[in-house]
Design a protein that fits this description.
This protein has a single domain, classed as Aldolase class I (TIM Barrel), CATH 3.20.20.70. The longest helix has 19 residues. Helices cover 43% and strands 16% of the residues. It is α/β, with parallel strands linked by helices. The chain binds 2-phosphoglycolic acid. The site of 2-phosphoglycolic acid (PGA) has 13 residues, from strand 8.
Length: 254
């Protein structure tokens, strides 16, 4: 049941925000979410915004994460950032496997798995994104797709490491489109992911893992989605860029 797991509301800024804008947004959100302790509150920010966002989040209940991490410890990977670099900057959370990474940057279940293992080995908490594309939903293979992604993306992740994994179920057709999965669709597919976790790691692990919904979650639809038994939070893109909207989603999680 829901009280066996933590609700997590995470913003994903994507490629938005200068450091000054990041600082301003966190400063604006902080008083609006102060004392809202029924969920963890995270902003995942572009690398260059992390220090400014952390500075503004100091002493608040807002945590700052990153949007990706490379799987190698170091080396000739121009443009990439390692888990050790992130933890050295005090970054605990990282998004991995976002559909935009999969769609535009060649990310596969194999590289998502490698990145996940590297981040977990460095002691980070991973927000692992997965979800079906529109054609897959229309073909009736959503359950198979998310089960397969769950298995491949978590390959060789231990039960102990799984405690640091949050799964974000994000139907690709709902991301940034204004289309939202119905609360029933979100609940059902998060349930399929949970059942897959139960098969891989046992019932207790399945009841303990936080599974967020993401895809056009906003101030209006959040309460209904978060009320569902299998939906333990949200990964929020567009609405995380507006203080009032993001704070309203945090309120809906209380
Ligand atoms: P959206 O993005 O809320 O703008 O649909 C969600 C996400 O991509 O994580």
């Amino acid at each position: 049941m829901k009280d066996t797991r933590r609700t997590v509301i995470a913003g994903n800024w994507k490629m938005n925000m200068t450091p000054a804008e990041a600082k301003a947004l966190v400063t604006e959100v902080a008083p609006l979410v102060a004392g809202k302790d029924k969920c963890d509150i995270i902003f995942c920010a572009p690398y260059v915004d992390i220090f400014a966002a952390q500075e503004a989040a100091k002493g608040t209940n807002i945590k700052i994460g990153a949007e990706n991490v490379h799987f190698a410890a170091k080396g000739a990977y121009t443009g990439e950032i390692s888990a050790e670099m992130l933890t050295a900057c005090g970054v605990e959370y990282v998004i991995i496997g976002h559909s935009e990474r999969r769609q535009y940057f060649g990310e596969t279940d194999e590289t998502v798995n490698l990145r996940t293992k590297a981040a977990l080995a460095a002691g980070m908490k991973v927000i692992l994104c997965l979800g079906e594309v529109k054609e897959e939903r229309l073909s009736g293979i959503t359950d198979e797709v998310v089960a397969m992604q769950t298995k491949l993306d978590l390959k060789d992740v231990t039960a102990e490491e799984l405690k640091n994994v949050i799964i974000a179920y994000e139907p690709v057709w709902a991301i940034g489109t204004g289309l939202t999965a119905t609360p029933e669709q979100a609940d059902e597919t998060c349930g399929v992911i949970r059942a897959t976790i139960a098969k891989l790691y046992g019932e207790e692990a399945a009841e303990a893992i936080t599974i967020q919904y993401g895809g056009s979650m906003n101030a209006k639809n959040a309460a209904e989605l978060l009320a569902k038994v299998n939906v333990d939070g949200g990964l929020i893109g567009g609405a995380s860029l507006k203080a009032a909207d993001f704070a309203a989603i945090v309120d809906a999680a209380q």
